[in-house]
Amino acid sequence: MTKKMKKTRNRIIGVLIAFIVLMILEHIGLFDKLPKLLIFIIYLVPYLVIGYDVLKKAFINISHGQVFDENFLMMIATFGAFGIQEYSEALAVMLFYQIGELFQSYAVGKSRQSIADMMSIAPEYANLQGEDGNIEEVDPSDVEIGSVIVIKPGEKVPLDGIVIEGESFLDTSAITGESVPRRASTGSEIYSGCINKDSVLKLKTTKKYEDSTVAKILELVENASNRKSRMENFITRFARYYTPIVTIGAVLLAVVPPIVGLLPLSSSIKRACIFLIVSCPCALVISVPLGFFGGIGASSKKGILVKGSNFLEAIADADILVMDKTGTLTKGEFKVKDIDTEGKLTSDELLKIAAHIESFSNHPIAGSIIEAYKEKTGNAPDEALVSNVREVAGHGIIAAFEGKEYLAGNEKLLKENGITDIPEGKSGTVVYIADKKVLLGTITISDTIKEGAAQAIRDIKQAGVRNVVMLTGDSKKAAQEVSGELSIDTVYSDLLPADKVTKVEELLSDTNRGKLVFVGDGINDAPVLMRADVGIAMGSLGSDAAIEAADIVLMDDDIRGISSVIAIARKTVRIVKENIAFALTVKILILVLGALGLATMWLAVFGDVGVAVLAILNSMRTLSEGKRQ
């Protein structure tokens, strides 16, 4: 609780005691013999003590042209109550309004805490080691790429980098939501925002502070509140018209009945005051954004960054989930599984040709073939033996090795070059090696399915997703093996990067669907992430482009978080809808009763403060979702 909240709490306690005493004195008839002016002053003092800040805000807002807000409504309603000598009701309205405001402030603070914890990951300094070995504390933004920084036990990692000396465990919970510490040693890549637990680490920085993981996270969190959901925008527009309408209605209710002789002036003013008190839109204006803020906070506790409440609202309606295979469902750690020849070469000779041709490619499959060659021979491919390299996007490579031209790629590459007698490959990603005339052999590359991927798919379906789709550039057989193991509904294989966008466009054209969610991690996934209704990217292993394009980021790369964020989103939307329905129903009912003279000011106080408190309590349930998942 902040100092301001504690001060308000103390004022409330003092005025509440005074209010109880005044009610007792009034009940036993002690005020019957006192002058009305004295009674007015007796009630005015605690009223000003509890309500001076509301009155101050109302006058300031009026001077700025912002007339119709809750402060104005409370001021007019209580002034009206004083005007008809309903002193106890005037004091009660302001007192319980402040109780509601205090409760609201506490709830907002609590819901912001999880995001405030996320914001606390910002490093305050970096220990920069100079060329002379001396260490100087500097601002992280002043550290250049390639600098050496020292991270002592208990300190935050200020910038992304690679460990060049030391071994320690890192607390990554602020970034990923994962409570188990991760081991870091020489050669390990670590991310800013983590906390060093045990020993001193020396780090060579790989990014500037503004490009580091912690800076990107903070930027995402800070911008999240700018992207409002449809329901938040609706409430904002609703309050803009609703408050002036009910204020005008209250004025008419106070003036018209006495003019036409239906009611005495005091009775009509009392009804108008009740009308004003009930009409205060606090329950809606606060509880709706509070609910979404709680949902975003609950997600952040699990290492899931949602860039705005509009994306939380959208994923609550998730119907089709489209997933990239490599790096999302699988680890993306390719290894050579089998080498088969057509009898013209030995397996070692085939591997040698493939490794040299692939040495000019940065594709993970090429890397696995080169790695297998290094393990076999102890040497790296000699690039000087390779010439006339031509990479065919999405198909493979054509190059000359020791003066003879070879092909290394998929079936499409071979068919385009007139080789049609192609045997069916084994399970996995198959690289075909051929010369310009005949197939020489195949190298089968396997990728490992991520731990928990099968359970993640089951949880996603239980969360209400109707169709889980996998997109991959791998062969049909390799794709079917993965999809069969993970129980994926629909598979599209042999896709080029541009084909992914086309497939998502086709799925988006289905009008009988909810929202389409795409999950990916590579730079080539960025266009699809932006095209989908909701894009989800992997945070720690994903590319910067994918994270920038995505709407939701899984900081620990665990796709099991998808079902968690869907569950949090659906609970959040359900709670927000409950608040809107409850608040509008109760307020409209009491407004009607008040206009007919059947509602008391105490009922009006419940219609305002009581409804707001109940709606806020309901909104705070969104925070508990992150704890239970």
Mean pLDDT: 82
Name the CATH homologous superfamily of one domain. Answer: Calcium-transporting ATPase, cytoplasmic domain N
Spatial strand arrangement across the major sheet: 10-22-21-20-11-18-19
Query: For this structure, what is the CATH class of one domain?
Result: Alpha Beta
* CA radius of gyration: 33 Å
Q: Which runs of at least 5 residues are low in confidence (pLDDT < 50)?
A: none
Find the CATH topology of one domain.
Calcium-transporting ATPase, cytoplasmic domain N
Major sheet attributes: 7 strands, mixed
**Ends distance:** 27 Å
Helix coverage percent of residues? 40-55%
CATH architectural designation of one domain: 3-Layer(aba) Sandwich
Give the overall shape, derived from the CA principal axes.
elongated
Derived from helix and strand composition plus strand pairing, the structural class reads: alpha+beta
Helical stretch count? 21
Total count of strands = 22
- The fraction of residues assigned to DSSP E strands is 15-25%
